[in-house]
Amino acid sequence: MTFSLSGRGDRAGAVHAFAAPYLLFLGDVTEPGFAKTAFGLRDWAGDRCIGEHALPDATVSTGLARLTPAQAAASGARTMVIGVANQGGVIPPSWVRELLAAIEAGLDLVAGMHSRLQNIEELRDAAARAGTRLIDLRVPPPNLPVASGRKRTGRRLLTVGTDCALGKKYTALSLARGLGERGVDAIFRASGQTGIMIAGEGIAIDAVIADFAAGAAELLSPDAAPDHLDVIEGQGSLFHPAYAGVSLALLHGSQPDQFVVCHEPGRRQILGTAGMELPTIEAVIEQTVALGRLTSPAIRCVGVSLNTGRMSPKDANREIEETSARLGLPAADPIRGGVAFDRLLDACR
Amino acid sequence: MTFSLSGRGDRAGAVHAFAAPYLLFLGDVTEPGFAKTAFGLRDWAGDRCIGEHALPDATVSTGLARLTPAQAAASGARTMVIGVANQGGVIPPSWVRELLAAIEAGLDLVAGMHSRLQNIEELRDAAARAGTRLIDLRVPPPNLPVASGRKRTGRRLLTVGTDCALGKKYTALSLARGLGERGVDAIFRASGQTGIMIAGEGIAIDAVIADFAAGAAELLSPDAAPDHLDVIEGQGSLFHPAYAGVSLALLHGSQPDQFVVCHEPGRRQILGTAGMELPTIEAVIEQTVALGRLTSPAIRCVGVSLNTGRMSPKDANREIEETSARLGLPAADPIRGGVAFDRLLDACR
After folding, report:
1. How do residues B185-200 score in pLDDT, each as one tens digit?
2. Which terminus in chain B has less CB density within 10 A, N or C?
């Protein structure tokens, strides 16, 4: 890896943080879509993953070495990360034996599912005996503060979106990596469970009690050196009727100097609503500046990240060029990269 | 009482709801400021309070009949409400005997403090034996939904503010009562713990997990008859760096047709910040419309509620008249009432 994902361990207790290297647990997964977290870890934190462990029924693999928990521990692993989800987000009884084996091998366990490791008595007892930790990323860290609005040192960039689930995490990871490769002291800051698994640190902002959400966002990107850049993973959208409050708390607490708008060309309706119209990129820029200047008076948009995965290369390039020309801002698809992405990175420096 | 506080019981389980009449518990309070909740209940829900109960050391009284829990139960009381707070929001050991006496008399207990009834083992055991309920208003109801953004039937008015703690609850209560007296089918909807105690029903929005805050606000004011008006208690401020996310979730979930801006003349700085400047009433109107129209396209400001408690009657009247003239909207102090308040009520009809 050529970029730093986080300042691991410096705020343990205040944010979720866990130790590398990791063994990835795949359960009995047969559907690659349910192993997205494991693939994300392999792709973005490959240097911290030393192997995978699965039940005999699993048919999906990350391509990493197959290791039992005991073998992984002997090779230096510190944590087994549950890198797989299933419908309902539950931890099935068939996984428990393998989770116990990991605890007995001295590994901490990390999960981001709805059902909690802490609620399974066998795991709780075994972890207490072994002196290992059960880390549920959907349980917010204790003693989060109320936000103060105090301006912090260092620089911050936040990814925002025209909607949910269109590339805010991927964009933030790509920007942090690209800027790191160009010599910028940049760190990815995770605000969601998959991001936290990749970074090894963070707070799932949407799982925090509403009164403390902005305070949690303040903790996420602490004071830093003047030229240091935190690239903060956005959540939701200011135009989503269910999640705008979370997005606003994250915007206010992050106090970004810069933001990048993420958008999926062709998406017309807000996810999970009965036909609410997607806002334009222009409307998102205007609203983000209008609201963000409360805690960051000089906030500005530095570019646009387009998720063109469903378009042909030709259509994608045209969309990127037209968007850039229309807004007078760099636009790029980080997955396609190229000169357009170089220009977006230059604008973030 | 000439106005309806809530539609008690129709959504039990989804919102906090408890049964009248109440016995108000005052603990060992010697400082009237700490008994604000009890006074609020006496003033706004007097017909549902049949008495008060205090320890011998207490020197503050609501003026209601002094009844032991057993006497109150014999007179028909269903619930003992802890109407007093102390520094730290804890339940001191000296109260436990009286709380146990209430449980043994068959009363449910309601508390809105940081420390929870449910966490005191003796109370939990006693309530299990007696078949009574321990209701902690700071624990959100289970299984809250994610907001859908679906437009609901009926009319809604939300009180919003230039800051926290300047009269949004009092204004909503006054509007609901005043409109009820004028024949409007209006209900007060409580979004904070004191409001819930007064209404006997509601959800403390700021205590909800951020992802579900807008969903909780949708539950709070369900579908209703076309001419029915829910008067919803606002929280925080869109300009408060710690609470704007909560305010936005409440705005989106409430989908108000109308809103009233609450303001305290003379307040210059946002509460709890190091000198952040208070927004103007004009800025609050503009921002509330810009954000609120996502779920309520026809949203509009119908007036201003001024908290002039620290001003002379003459200064207060001048401030009310100047504000009304400047904005071209009715302005009033609900506590002072008068013609100005009549005009504000007319604008809400």
Report:
1. 999 999 998 999 999 9
2. N
